[in-house]
Known about the structure:
By secondary structure, chain A is mainly β. Chain A contains no helices and 11 strands.
Amino acid sequence: SQKIEQNSEALNIQEGKTATLTCNYTNYSPAYLQWYRQDPGRGPVFLLLIRENEKEKRKERLKVTFDTTLKQSLFHITASQPADSATYLCALDIKGNTDKLIFGTGTRLQVFP
Amino acid sequence: EAGVAQSPRYKIIEKRQSVAFWCNPISGHATLYWYQQILGQGPKLLIQFQNNGVVDDSQLPKDRFSAERLKGVDSTLKIQPAKLEDSAVYLCASSLTTKQFFGPGTRLTVL
């Protein structure tokens, strides 16, 4: 069956440390992989997109890697801050007749001072 | 730039009642999506429109859910009759390219 797995447990880290979130998938061949942030009571907000032929993408304190052989993406937040506390969703962009996103269940990140 | 607007923000109904949600996408975005997000899960695509045509409704429970996008702009999603398991947040999103922009969602509680 097709699955997207993210850390089901919440991730608690101390301010200033690097947070690393994992997204593993099976039986998909995504053209892109996207990461979104979701705060309580709000819709997801787009953060980064990485293509299947890219190994790494950076944006400010964020870094995403994409390994299509391992079928895994890692999402890193360096120098984390309490304001980074949120749920982070990975989404596979399945190219076909339409542009379709399949979301993982999300990982809740808590950064404490 | 105005974001995706949704209303109402909250709705409480009893099972077997009907309910409708409204979405106004970002101006110029041809693609509109409705997602269902159950507590603790990621959003699940219900239906996708390209302008006013449906391009994917494979996960829409068509016996009770319906959606339309008249004139290729606003969209409504309807549930009739509602079941307890329909309790969720209903998210609307729009896109011009690959990146999707989400509205705040409508939290539906079915009693």
